[in-house]
């Protein structure tokens, strides 16, 4: 995986939901792009087909992704097939991947797999994360960051 952008480089963000796009755009933190397509009103995310098209044309230095669950044995998993497709495309289009997951998500699995723990460069989690799981992420090459 690549080293990522320099600290002084301008930031361009491809946000797959309005919940992510609005704070970045309003704060002037980044130039924000969103997929063309249908916005799902209940989640304010773009539908999978729009996201997959946008991700096919985008290369990220760093991607920040969430997951429903992750385990060393089963990998990175989510509850819907569409979400797994989008997250697979995110991993494929990114030089570096940061996984943000609360500790409780690191001790369960969901139905649809989108990656392995080896795909993660940095794990950001909470203090309640199982130590054995944190050790497995480290052994797989991830840097582990525990937030308060």
From TrEMBL:
Domain DeoR-like transcriptional repressor C-terminal sensor per the UniProt entry, residue ranges: 8-125
Organism, as annotated: [Propionibacterium] namnetense SK182B-JCVI
Record's keyword terms, sorted: Repressor
UniProt-listed PANTHER family: GLYCEROL-3-PHOSPHATE REGULON REPRESSOR (PTHR30363:SF4), HTH-TYPE TRANSCRIPTIONAL REGULATOR SRLR-RELATED (PTHR30363)
Name by which UniProt lists this protein: Transcriptional regulator, DeoR domain protein
InterPro entries in the record: Carb_Metab_HTH_regulators (IPR050313), DeoR-like_C (IPR014036), NagB/RpiA_transferase-like (IPR037171)
Pfam family for this entry, one: DeoRC
